[in-house]
Amino acid sequence: MGKQNKGQTFAGIPVLTTIDYASLYDDYDKVTVQALIKDIPTLAILNFVINLQNQVLYAYSAVSTQMRMVRDMCNYLPKEVKQKAWKFQKDHPNISLMNNMSCFLLYGIALQNYVPLEEDDIDLYEEEIEPVYKAILYCNKVVMDIASQGELPKDPYLLSLRADMPQVEFKLFKDFRTQFFKAIKFFEFCENDAHYSNYLLHFCVNYDVPDWKAYLLMLFDFYAKSLKTTSSILTAEDPLVCKLLEQYVIDLGQCVNLDNDFNALQYFRNHFLFKIDDTRFMLLNANFLVDKMYQGLKFDFYRVVKDNGNLNKNGNTYNGFVDFTAELGTVFSEPKLLYPLLDNIFASKCSKKYSGDFLKSQGVPAEPDYYLRIGDTLILFENKDVLISDRIRYSQNAHDIADEIYKKVCKYEGTNNKGVGQLLNTLDGIFSHGTMNQLDSEVVNVKKIFLLIVTNDRAFSALGVNGLVVREFGNIMQKQTTKCPAMIYSPILVDYDSLVEMSYLIFIGKLNFVEILEWYIDTNRYNLMPFYGFIRDNVMRKHVMNEDETNFLYNGIINKLN
Length: 562
Known about the structure:
Elements: E1 9-10, E2 13-14, E3 17-18, H1 21-24, H2 33-36, H3 42-57, H4 62-74, H5 79-91, E4 95-96, H6 100-112, H7 126-147, H8 156-164, H9 176-192, H10 196-206, H11 212-227, E5 233-235, H12 239-245, H13 261-268, E6 273-275, E7 280-283, H14 286-291, H15 297-307, H16 321-345, E8 352-355, H17 356-361, E9 370-374, E10 377-384, H18 390-393, H19 398-409, E11 410-411, E12 418-419, H20 420-433, E13 448-455, H21 465-477, E14 487-488, E15 492-495, H22 496-507, H23 513-523, H24 531-539, H25 547-554
Parallel strand pairs: 3-4, 10-13, 13-14, 13-15
Antiparallel strand pairs: 1-2, 5-7, 6-7, 8-9, 9-10, 11-12
């Protein structure tokens, strides 16, 4: 979120008010988006909107960027409309013009009513700029009307979920470095696993690539072009790269139902390129391309597994994508992502550290996924590489979203525990039954305990999620009988990417992990700010990864691509 403008805030977090068509024009009920952009070349519309949205996507301070964009828009508005816009901005200190859901809706409608370019010029004429701004404002109104349907919850956490969950994955650009890191580790795992190596073979055949290294390098090279230009049009001259990219190309014949923002999102998530000619592609959203390196890759990988009738490690058919990711969490994300990262970070900065696999091999019951003691501080990790489906994250019922969060990361019901509930069982074993006494006799002297739930899905970084978990944790603790001599801090949902980004600085002692956790809890008075946002706004603000950090993070695995 970066340095923010003074204005309306909610629990210290700036609240953006979206400017829309009805706020500036009087004919909202009489006009349509189709009429507003009629006869304007579609690619020129897309190019204009993409470049506007990219300014927000890559901005360090989205608030100031949004407000500047509104002022720029005013240059193209009639005098009376411009005066309304100025008044709106005066009445709403934190103003928003661009949001992803509105963009997706406008992309879908523009593609449904495709108007070709007469020549190879994708810039709007000056007289076309106001109509496209009007179309953006119109889509803002449509999306806000959809979002406000039904009764809005009064609970601040639930209200935050309704507002932030649909857009959280798009608020900041996705860091390709962490996705690239996870992708290399994933493919390396597949390559060395007798079962998954068969899946990998089918994946490479499906995407017509010689191996996973070629797949990653093709995507990375294409994405790198987007970082070196302000243009939305990227060139891929290698025929193999063009062939790989074909799967992500928009099919105009499939755009008939994209006049709904959710339908548009679903389609553009996997079709984010418009093919201009044999080598040039328009990139609608860079986040979707980065997703294909790892997060979105898992969906594609499972689709190939399913299409080829591959069975799981027990010889059974996977019961859907959730079943596949559950197995992947056990065999890959926990032992191959979490363990090595924490082992490297705290190689010399801890008193005791044990992986969950090691604890299980030693017969420790209710073991955490990772056990870390730094002096008188105990940190327990539970890895939850789970996803919140689009059906839930875009639900208009905040209670459904909350229930899904509890189900995934904060459940305490006898033996059926998840996330926080599992770690509370661990604490009960440690302090009521001495389960760690042989491996760490000094644990009885700890004074502070942190419970960390490590996630990979950006949805868990929405405003209000951590607050819901903290509140449920409080309810659970009222029923707890564990005798614990230490201060148990409220649980924290920590995204894996933040651990990756801080890893080297913690390793060399420039950052103190315990102090960061305390700082987050002390600062986050209302428990609304996600750990993800806190790290970027405070700890890693404007930090640029240097060569030493890159070498530490990749630890030689980058050479596997050569």
